[in-house]
Design a protein that fits this description.
The strands form 4 sheets. The protein has a 4-stranded antiparallel beta sheet, with no helix packed on it. A 4-stranded antiparallel beta sheet has the order 10-9-12-13, with no helix packed on it. The chain folds into 2 domains: 85 residues, no CATH class; 85 residues, Immunoglobulin-like (Sandwich). The relative contact order is 0.13. By secondary structure, it is mainly β.
Length: 196
């Protein structure tokens, strides 16, 4: 939105795939950014949603996944409301209503591009590599979390790193989550399958 010619700066990130439900063409409709940083898209009326996995990356790198979330019930033209609980104080902002003027206001906001992480292999057996889109700032941590929400591993990542490896020795087969955060702000979460 900062381009001098917005129309010329446009880029196609996805094309309607021809999917229909009850003879209705379902392409792209209402969009909303979720608490995990992804953008969720309702294709009209059906039992699924699209997801823009990395909305801060340009072009096809944003990774639009059509019909990637199956819903338990029919939806029509509406999305759940995702309140933004991850606000931080922005010094000298005319819109700052948090009233935080202490040390928190001196903390820099994390790079938005760092919200995108990749993990591989997935599923994994012995270890998983977490790759970051950009070099991470000081204070970044990578955590492995089980489905009950327990943190099984939490490791500091050196400032400037572009990847980190977690050893999965304590894990049994199952579903886990890899979370990357800095200064308490979650930069990204990915599902991880472990096969032993």
């Amino acid at each position: 939105m900062q381009a001098s010619d917005i129309a010329a700066s446009g880029d196609t990130v996805a094309v309607y795939d021809g999917f229909k439900y009850n003879q209705n063409e379902l392409s792209f409709g209402w969009m909303e950014r979720g608490p995990d940083g992804k953008i969720y898209v309702i294709p009209g009326c059906c039992f699924s949603m699209h997801v823009i996995e990395n909305p801060d990356l340009k072009g096809l790198a944003c990774d639009v996944q059509q019909h990637s979330i199956d819903l338990p019930t029919w939806i029509y033209g509406s999305l759940p409301y995702f309140p933004n609980y991850r606000l931080y104080d922005l010094p000298n902002s005319p819109c700052d209503t948090l009233g935080i003027d202490g040390p928190v206001s001196a903390a820099p906001a994390p790079e938005r591009a760092a919200q995108s992480i990749r993990i591989f292999p997935n599923p994994a057996t012995d270890e998983v590599r977490v790759a970051f889109v950009a070099a991470v700032p000081a204070g970044t941590r990578v955590s492995l979390i089980d489905v009950a929400g327990r943190v099984l591993l939490s490791e500091a990542v050196p400032a400037g790193a572009t990847a980190h490896t977690l050893v999965l020795g304590i894990c049994r087969s199952g579903l886990y989550f890899v979370r990357v955060e800095v200064a308490g702000l979650v930069l990204g979460v990915r599902k991880l399958g472990v096969l032993k």
